[in-house]
Design brief:
The protein is of the alpha/beta class. It has helices at residues 42-60, 87-95, 99-116, 132-144, 173-180, 223-233, 250-262, 295-300, 305-313, 325-342, 354-359, 365-379, 384-396, 402-416, 439-457, 461-473, and strands at residues 8-11, 16-19, 27-31, 65-69, 148-151, 154-157, 194-199, 217-219, 237-243, 269-275, 278-280, 283-284, 321-322, 476-481, 484-489. The strands form five sheets. A four-stranded parallel β-sheet has the order 4-3-9-10. Strands 5-6-7-8 form a four-stranded antiparallel β-sheet, covered by helices on one side. The structure holds adenosine monophosphate (AMP) and zinc ion. The site of adenosine monophosphate has 17 residues, from helix 1 and strand 9. Zinc ion (ZN) binds at residues 32, 225, 250.
């Protein structure tokens, strides 16, 4: 098995398992990132844990990846209409803060969460607000090619001109629109037509507004992903990921406008991968529902972020998962047992790749079989439940050697990212100490502390208080001293 098993991924485009083949030296991967107008809930973190698993599977095979995750700080619209108000503007009005403040604040919160979940940082986190001129150019090019029409409410993409429209959704247009709850727009020729530019209505003045050939306004919410992914990964790239809700509309529209823009008859992106939902009760966990559980809430309740990561990895990314406190409880207990068994084996070898794991087998046939099982599992569309099962087997098998065990545990964790080399059972009993935080977590917390200091300097007390509340939830206590603030974990 020296070369390992062929990596196979479930491509939403065509809905089938396909061999993954590289297209060049570096695999380009784009993951639709967070909208930063509210706290991310636990379900929002699932796409990034899933994308992280994919990143780890590539690292395992020594295939370099360039990963881009966008920050949607403009253009995401209330109720998914094309003409509605920006969610960010609504949040800014509600919280009586500037849209910039709102976006910066929730972007920081997102970075805190991904660091706590041990997610490998992306190469780029472009902000939509920084790419509006490129979005205008992109839309102007589509207009020059005759793919659009103008209405008083903006510039629309004419889906009638695209015979392949909607292939990704595999639904008829009615079903697609039903699924995405798209509303009527005055004068729209087809219900599937979508805004590339949202012009201000007479008398309306957006907070975030740009001048364009179609008047003052803001870009449509699909445009940013096409523009930023092409800008940072090249016109065609390999993998595009997101939550399964994007498969029906957002990604359909990204494909339509991108392929019209490129006009080369080639598929824009080769593999489309979507994670299933995290459910709460019988429903999709949703931001708009309010009160959805957050990672900080779990840690406040005494759970380690890695317990949530293990809970997610215990299911396949394409299966719905039901969030319950009992399930996270069980995950934390499982993790504690795992760590207790791993502790006597430390230090673990620093394995990140299949090749390094194979080199560490030292002729142990049981370890070799388990390593093959792990490799086959991750190659089979990222079956993390089977990687976990092999990890458990390695810790229980009476025939395996201690060195074989070390190799298999380190190999499994290279893919799972649970931090088995360093977690201590105490971390899973009690609140954590600063020394238990990763460099990324520390950095993200320091960023929040600095933002609070800035807010206080600007006498923006509501913002300072809100940041303090978030730090509180994270278990961080800030003390203001004459030399500036210091912080520690409670
Ligand atoms: P948002 O910040 O709302 O745009 O969401 C960020 C990501 O979370 C997107 O890829 C969504 O598809 C995904 N997402 C939203 N809700 C859930 C959920 N309940 N379970 C899994 N993924 C979700
Ligand atoms: Zn997107």
């Amino acid at each position: 098995m020296a070369g390992g098993h062929q990596l196979r991924l479930f491509n939403s485009l065509g809905r089938r398992m396909e061999d993954f083949t590289v297209s060049g030296e570096v695999t380009g991967m784009y993951s639709c990132g967070p909208t930063v107008y509210a706290f991310p809930h636990l379900g929002n973190m699932r796409p990034y844990v899933f994308a992280d698993t994919l990143r780890r599977a590539f690292r395992w095979r020594q295939l370099p990846v360039r990963h881009v995750v966008n920050i949607t700080d403009v253009g995401h619209v209330v109720a998914d209409t094309d003409t509605g108000q920006d969610k960010l503007e609504v949040a800014a009005a509600r919280e009586r803060r500037s849209v910039q403040d709102i976006a910066d604040f929730y972007t920081d919160v997102f970075f805190v969460d991904i660091a706590a979940l041990n997610i490998l940082p992306a190469d780029e986190y472009p902000r939509a607000s920084a790419y509006v001129p490129q979005m205008i150019e992109f839309a102007a090019e589509l207009e020059a090619r005759g793919c659009t029409y103008r209405l008083p409410s903006g510039l629309y993409f004419d889906t009638a001109k695209d015979p392949g429209y909607g292939a990704l959704a595999q639904m008829d247009a009615e079903g697609q629109l039903e699924a995405a709850r798209v509303e009527q727009v005055e004068g729209r020729r087809r219900k599937t037509d979508f805004a590339l530019w949202r012009a201000e209505e007479p008398g309306q003045r957006r907070v975030m507004r740009w001048d364009s050939p179609w008047g003052w306004g803001a870009p449509g919410w699909h445009l940013e992903c096409s523009v930023m992914s092409m800008a940072l990964l090249g016109q065609h790239f390999d993998i595009h990921t997101g939550g399964v809700d994007h498969r029906e509309l957002h990604h359909v529209n990204e494909i339509a406008q991108s392929e019209a823009y490129l006009g080369d008859g080639q598929p824009w992106v080769r593999y489309w991968l979507h994670n299933e939902f995290l459910q709460l009760g019988a429903e999709k966990m949703a931001k708009s529902a309010g009160g959805a559980p957050r990672l900080a809430g779990l840690t406040e309740a005494g759970y380690h972020p890695m317990a949530y990561r293990l809970f997610l990895l215990g299911g396949h990314y394409r299966s719905q998962l039901d969030f319950t406190p009992a399930a996270v409880d069980a995950a934390q207990a499982t993790l504690r047992r795992l760590v207790t068994r791993v502790q006597p084996l430390r230090p673990l070898p620093p394995i990140q790749t299949l090749a390094a794991a194979q080199a560490g087998l030292a002729g142990d046939p049981v370890a070799a079989r388990l390593l093959d099982t792990i490799d086959a599992a991750i190659a089979a569309d990222l079956s993390t439940p089977r990687v976990l099962a092999a990890l458990q087997d390695a810790l229980r098998d009476p025939e395996i050697t201690p060195d074989g065990q070390r190799t298999v545990v380190a190999a499994a964790d290279a893919l799972l990212g649970l931090g088995l080399a360093t977690l201590s059972p105490d971390d899973l009993e009690h609140r954590r100490a600063v020394s238990d935080l990763s460099a990324e977590e520390r950095h993200a917390i320091e960023q929040l502390v600095a933002d609070r200091t800035q807010a206080r300097k600007e006498r923006d007390w509501p913002r300072a208080d809100q940041i303090r509340a978030v730090l509180d939830e994270l278990g961080v206590r800030v003390t203001d001293t004459p030399n500036g603030p210091t912080w520690q974990l409670r």
